[in-house]
Specification:
This protein is α+β, with helices and mostly antiparallel strands. Among the domains are: 60 residues, MutS, DNA mismatch repair protein, domain I, CATH 3.40.1170.60; 57 residues, 5' to 3' exonuclease, C-terminal subdomain (DNA polymerase, domain 1, Orthogonal Bundle), CATH 1.10.150.20; 148 residues, Dna Ligase, domain 1 (2-Layer Sandwich), CATH 3.30.1490. The protein contains 16 helices and 13 strands. Strands 5-6-1-7-8 form a five-stranded mixed sheet. Helix 4 packs antiparallel against helix 6, helix 11 packs across helix 12 and helix 13 packs antiparallel against helix 14. The longest helix has 25 residues. The C terminus is likely disordered. The structure holds a DNA duplex.
Length: 393
DNA sequence: TCTGGGGTCCTAGGACCC
DNA sequence: TCTGGGGTCCTAGGACCC
């Protein structure tokens, strides 16, 4: 069985934990917009990307706090330690939720339900936070179950009545149905998962496109073979900045200063992660709330500030007509196609810290084969181990 | 109801290669 | 010289998630 564990109103709960006066009161953690709202605040209709000023109209007694990200990441670490002590198969999804595969732990730890009860108890006792757990045979069902059980709940979906649980639910509960997809389905009178299941795969693909159609068809028929994946590496690192008031055709110097700040922030993070990226993306939002992106893929992966800045300046120039016509309200950048900064992926035992001898080999490969060899290496890097074709390319 | 900042995955068209 | 088919990569955009 698989557990989906999800901390309730995470940021707001940490604040209530750390200040007894906040408990039982509506709490909003926000910076301009609501990042997290306690369930007391949600009762007034406050939800997450709402403006703080609007939230206060709905709920005038709410306490509004500035986020304390270090406190949240510290709490998250302690919760993940409890996850890791429960089972070696933990897949983190975000700062506050994870899948836990508990197959084969019966002898050691009891039934999956008993494990889930203990997990909730441990998180409450040791970290002081409420957590909801869904238990089911598949990832998707476990995730849906925790969503239904929130807040501070536990829901086990018995393997012999999975469809009885799934089919009466609203389509919005499915993982991958957002506002746009929900609207398309509603327009055709489809509101329940059971109705979705009656629609053939072809019909669904015609409405939603190939991937989304197949995906939702499988989920509605309770097919989800995805295993719990221990660690997935990020494929991109980015940062963005709402420029807010400067709606008028932007001052180029000011625009460039913002860009430099973003590039500095992102390249620091990329270097700290010991990674390099090959594609840079410029993201923009305009005065009329439309968005656009411009991207460029470099010959060679890099994490150098100047190289990335140069590429982005080029993209800004290409987007300048758009910027001057609409006025910017947000500027963002992303470095994607990330790889490890040694370019050649090493066999697992060496993955974390290549010995000096290996570093030297990598340098020699760089010198002798140049850019092309590195490009090939980056493509091979997605599979495990050092592969011979690299050297003969 | 006009919303911040961090991500993921998918699609469609064009360029290019064999 | 004409024509076909298959594949990869890049770019831009869209939807979704927390």
């Amino acid at each position: 069985m698989i557990l989906h564990a999800d901390l309730d109103a995470f940021y707001a709960s940490v604040e209530q934990r750390d200040d007894a006066r906040l408990r039982g009161r509506p709490v909003i953690v926000g910076a301009g917009v609501v990042l997290s709202a306690s369930y007391e605040a949600r009762a007034f209709g406050v939800y997450t990307p709402m403006g703080v000023s609007k939230a206060l109209l709905l709920c005038p007694d709410a306490v509004v706090l500035h986020p304390r990200f270090t406190a949240y990441s510290e709490a998250s670490k302690r919760v993940f330690e409890i996850f890791d002590n429960t089972t070696p198969l933990v897949e983190g999804l975000s700062i506050d939720e994870a899948f836990l595969d508990v197959h084969g732990l019966e002898q050691l730890s009891g039934t999956s339900t008993e494990i889930a009860i203990k997990l909730r108890h441990d998180v409450r006792e040791q970290v002081g936070l409420p957590i909801t757990v869904g238990v089911a045979r598949t990832k998707h069902l476990a995730k849906v179950a925790s969503g239904v059980a929130k807040p501070d709940g536990l829901l086990v979906v018995p393997p012999d009545d999975e469809l009885g649980f799934l089919h009466p639910l609203a389509v919005e509960h499915l993982w991958g149905v957002g506002p746009v997809t929900a609207r398309k389905l509603h327009q055709r009178g489809i509101t329940r998962v059971g109705q979705l299941a009656e629609l053939g795969e072809d019909g669904l693909v015609a409405i939603l496109g190939r991937a989304a159609g197949r995906h939702l068809h499988a989920l509605a028929h309770n097919q989800d073979p995805r295993p719990v994946h221990v660690r997935r590496r990020r494929h991109s690192i980015g940062s963005q900045h709402a420029t807010g008031l400067c709606r008028l055709p932007s001052d180029p110097a000011e625009l460039d200063a913002t860009l430099v700040g973003l590039v500095d922030r992102v390249t620091r993070r990329v270097r700290a992660a010991r990674r390099v990226g090959r594609t840079v993306v410029l993201r923009m939002r305009f005065g009329d709330y439309t968005r656009a992106t411009r991207s460029q893929t470099l010959v060679m992966a890099t994490n150098e500030t100047q190289t990335i800045l140069r590429a982005l300046r080029g993209l800004v120039v290409s987007a300048m007509p758009l910027i001057q016509r609409e006025g910017l309200t947000m500027l963002g950048i992303t470095v994607s196609n990330l790889e490890n900064d040694d370019a050649v992926q090493l066999p697992l035992p060496f993955e974390r810290r290549p010995p000096r001898a290996v570093d030297r080999v990598v340098d020699q490969v760089r010198e002798r084969f140049g850019v092309k060899a590195l490009t090939r290496a980056s493509q091979l890097g997605r599979s495990d181990g050092l592969e011979v074709p690299l050297l003969s390319d």
